[in-house]
Structures are given as C-alpha cells and as structure tokens.
Amino acid sequence: MTTESASHSIRRIVVYCGANLGNDPAFKAAAVELGTVLAQQGIGVVYGGGGVGLMGVVANAALDAGGEVIGVIPEALKALEVEHRHLTDLHVVPDMHSRKAMMLGLADAVIALPGGFGTMDELFEALTWSQIGYHRKLCGLLNVNGYYDHLIRWLEHSVRTGLVRDVNLELLVHGSDISAMIEALRTKPFPFARKWISPTELDLKV
Predict the structure, then answer these.
(1) pTM
(2) What is the pLDDT of residue 29?
(3) Phi and psi for 200 in degrees, rounded to 5?
(4) pLDDT tens per residue, range 55-82
(5) For residue 21, how many other CB atoms are within 10 A of its CB?
(6) SS3 annotation, the chain
(7) What are the pLDDT digits (tens) for 98-155?
(8) How confident is the model at residue 203 (pLDDT cuts 50, 70, 90)?
(9) Please, which residues have CB within 8 angstroms of residue 88's CB and are 6 or more apart in sequence?
C-alpha cells in the first residue's frame, strides 16, 4: 500500500443524510451541529437540495451560521416542490445519476449522517469510486447514537471474509465526534491499493 500525503485542502464537503428526521432527537441535533461547524470552519455544504428531513436541518444550520450551501436536485423531485428555496445555489439535474456525480464533483470529501436507502446508495457509490480510483475523496460515517454500529460490524466482517480489503476500508472514517471527523478527513493519508485480489493472493486455483 502507498499513501497520498496528508493535509488535504477541503473547500466543501458533500453531506448525505435522510429526507426524514427519524425518531431519535440525536439525529436532528447532530445535523444542526454538523451544518454549524462546517460553516464556522469555512467549509461549504453540498447536499441533495431538499428542504425536508435531516437534509433541510443541515442546510438551515449552515445557512444560519453564514455558510455556503449548494443543493443538487433531480427534476422529478423539484417537481414535487421539496427543494430548499433559500440556498446559496441550487442545481437542477436530469436524474439521480447526474445528481450523485455533480455532488461528488463539487466537494472534496464526504460525510454521511443517519439516513436510509438513498444515503447508503450515495455513500457506497462514493466509496466504490474512491476504491477504483475515480476520485481521491475520503468518506466519513457519522455514527450518531450508535446508528451505524451494525453497518460498521458488517464492514469489518467483509474484511475478515476477504470480500473487502482492509486497506480499502481505510477509505472510510467513522466516529461520533464531528470536529474530529472533519480533521481526519483533512489530514488522514489517502490509501492506495489494487482493487482486485488475484487468485494467487487467495491461494486459489482457477
């Protein structure tokens, strides 16, 4: 494994999170804190452009703290009038694929708050793109009140069973302290390793 030098410049972070609030007040509190801290540190927020759920909470907190907030929303969701109407900038794109690509393209790192299917889709696509060298962006998993405990155990299990390489798991930073996570995304060396495991590495015959 080789690593890229530490101290990455972070101008913006893409935030993935739920379009619902969830039933744990800690989720909303973390969303408020994340938006506020990012704005205070001069880091812009890129997110899915919605005004509802944890998405809207993050955006409002960052805006209230004087931060930059850029939304990216597909035409179909804009037609449902769920977009945030008071952002620094709002990009309307044709579809979900375009949305994910633009969000990552506008940001230098990723943080995922608690969320559902969409959050997982976005996070794992970002991780996969890092793994295969499409970009060099670390991903943070904000484990609020143990929400992601089971996911973290599954990821560790995937490494033990040989389906994920341990070096590629280093692309993901997880924890519950927001300031520490931002600092890790800024300073952690970016790991490089070959994605594909050869049969000889697994001592297999083909």
Answers:
(1) 0.90
(2) 98
(3) -70, -35
(4) 999 999 999 999 999 999 999 887 776 7
(5) 17
(6) CEECCCCCCCCEEEEECCCCCCCCHHHHHHHHHHHHHHHHCCCEEEECCECCHHHHHHHHHHHHCCCCEEEEEEHHHHHCCCECCCCCEEEEECCHHHHHHHHHHHCCEEEECCCCHHHHHHHHHHHHHHHCCCCCCCEEEECHHHCCHHHHHHHHHHHHCCCCCHHHHCCEEEECCHHHHHHHHHHCCCEECCCCCCCCCCCCCC
(7) 999 999 999 999 999 999 999 999 999 999 999 988 899 999 999 999 999 999 999 9
(8) very low
(9) 44, 63, 68, 69, 70
Total residue count of the chain as it appears in this document: 206
Q: List strands edge to edge, sheet with 44-47.
A: 89-93, 69-74, 44-47, 12-16, 109-112, 139-142, 172-175
Domain map of the chain by residue range?
8-192
Would you identify the CATH topology of the domain 8-192? Rossmann fold (3.40.50)
* CA angle 12–18–23, rounded 5-degree value: 135
From the centroid of its chain, how far is CA 102? 13
